[in-house]
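Give me the fold.
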Amino acid sequence: MSTISPSPVPRLYRGAVLKHGLDWDRIDALLHTVEPTPQNLQLFQDGAVDPASYVERAGELGMSRPRLIKERFYSLLRGGAALVFNRMELHSLEARQLCAAVSRLGGASGIGNGYLSFGGQCAFDKHWDTHDVYAVQLIGRKRWQLFQPTFMNPLAEHTSEAMAMQCPDKVVLDCVLSPGDMLYVPRGWWHQTLPFDEPSFHLSVGLYPPTMHDFLGWALARVAPQRLAVRQTLSNDPGVVAGDLGAAVEALRDLLLDPAVLADYRREIALADRPVPEFELARFAGERTIGPETLLRLSTAQAAVRTPEALLINGRALPADGLGARIIQLLATVPMCSFAALSDAFIDVPEALLQEGVFELSAHGCIVTGGVQLAEP
């Protein structure tokens, strides 16, 4: 009999993030440039705070745009409200690089919300998330309490509010995150954060690995119609329909257990993962050289897909036997690699040709230079 694999459990990573760049100056700059709409920035205190209490519309060069009312915004933060930066990776290169590092660790694409508080009470009730969460503490400290799941592996529609379940009383994990620490909270685990009477900022990176539900839905929509048993008319005769359903189930079983079908699904996921590109104009505008200590990494958390003719990554098809494909295959084995280490691995390739290969891959968005490196767990 088939068994279900065990669900993941929480994990605490001490000192996981060594450098990140998300300091107070960078957060101030984001408050200056990001429009304070509920889609971008929002305050919470016993629920969402009415934006009308801290956002106004102001004229700038004949145009009206929303703007934070500074004194009210400060007052709400001092009073215990928490600020949420939604999709922070869309506005901050530092947040994007942190999301990329966590995505490589978790093997799935991720997005990041920032949480800023200056003390007060817990801004959110105990709840679970329907995606995996990696909470990265960047400024100050925050206390986290985790509780056992009451509904394992929830999907998007299975929110803790909609399921109306009670959080268990027993705390499974009670820890304090300091700057650089990271906490992994699998989907479905109840949790709450308890602020100290001090400033705190953390980035919550949400990862969305494919689920069995995703694969089954894809297979039923894309592949199952190829099978005759699935295309049968649903009979009104109970005896006939029972036999037809049995045949359809057998056809689906054979289809779902076909390694080629699963490979096609993974290929489609990999090709659909198209990260926002990072630009390096200074390097391209100046002398086209890469220093030996420059760190290189793949642009996507998804593994490159290999076919007999090509290596597919970030929507690009690289010749399977070309230098670009060789570089991608090496970078897929490590979170980051210096150009010096790359040169050592490609002693048969002249350095000028290797430099040009790296520039070409960077221009096509297949690899990125620099970024955040997580400490070894």
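The first strand starts at residue 11 and ends at 13.
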